[in-house]
TrEMBL record:
Belongs to the multi antimicrobial extrusion (MATE) (TC 2.A.66.1) family. It comes from Grifola frondosa. Keywords: Membrane, Transmembrane, Transmembrane helix. It is found in: Membrane. This is Putative transporter C11D3.06. GO terms for molecular function: antiporter activity; xenobiotic transmembrane transporter activity. Its main location: membrane. GO terms for cellular component: membrane. InterPro entries: MATE_euk, MATE_fam. The lineage of its organism: Eukaryota, Fungi, Dikarya, Basidiomycota, Agaricomycotina. The chain crosses the membrane at residues 82-102, 114-133, 163-181, 187-209, 230-250, 270-291, 303-325, 331-351. It is a multi-pass membrane protein. One of its GO terms (biological process) is xenobiotic detoxification by transmembrane export across the plasma membrane.
Amino acid sequence: MRYRIRQLRPKRSAHYSLPSSSTPFPSFSHELSVAAFSLMLAMQAGASHSARFLRVLIVGAPGYIGFESVKKYLQCQGIMRASTYVLLMVAPVNLALNVFFVHYTSLGFLGSPVAISITYWLCFLLLILVTYLSPTHRRNETWDGIQPGAVFDPRSCWTFLKLAIPGILMVGTEWAAFEIVALAVDGLVLCLLPLILNTIPFGIGVAASTRVGNLIGARDAFGAKRASHASALLSVVVGSAVMIIMMATKDVFGYIFSDDDAVVHLVSKVMPLVASFQIADGLAGSCGGVLRGQGRQHLGAIFNLVAYYVLALPMGIALAFRTSLGLQGLWIGQVVALFIVGMGEYAVVWLGTDWDREVQQGIERNQEEAKRRQMHESLQE
């Protein structure tokens, strides 16, 4: 069976992630840091509500993590649409819950995190139900019960963490860099736009990581290579389309945020810079996904750390506050970072990948996991 060789890995990955969903204590520290930053930056009184919002939202954290874990578990087996169907079913429920709790109860704005938390848990439970009912999942035979001894085997945990920690750094460092820019410009609404647009290449990257990982697991080196280049090409095409739209609307785009002519003028000055990195952002998102599919997240983390925190942020802040460029200086730094990351990661995927070797390494990892599983089962007997 195609996915049989990868049987242990998706199950064990789900095992590692699900226990963490019941321990959302890091979120408490995040909540405290939000409150501290609000005070340090002397932000308006309304900003302090973010800590209260997060405190309520923590209730939904286990459900969210559980949903993501089961989603990845299914995607490892080629079951791609289950989570999409669940989200389509739950989206209108989420809207209705938000309207009800915010406008028809005494919770006010806190009704929104209550609604979101309920939605997260609903997504998780529905996806478990879909998994249980899925005939493809039953045929794949990838689940044979919870095995705590196998899950917490130190060598297996270390194998998992070697992928998880660089993956967190890879994604988190990029998002954090944009958040730092938002803080530096006192939360200008324009900073929200790149974060929203980033979901497009990030989505392509998620698809690429899943597809490339599946093909490597299926020992299809040519298919994995073709999928990686297809995702890069798609990201360039989509990025080009977004860039053209942004340039065509730069003089009127600011009216989405404000009727103030000064704000609209400022947006029109910065839009060409934001538009210019859409192709690079697309390459960074898609090729980053390919690297995750190969299990080389550490390369993406290194690219992001160097490009954003060694080069882009110091340069951008210096240009913004020590020259007359102002906000444009910050975005020049981000443009430089994204081009370094995008072109660097594509060079690794294009020139620095031996696909046959990646497949062989995947086979060796699976064989090691199989040996550990057999050893654990023999100890239980």
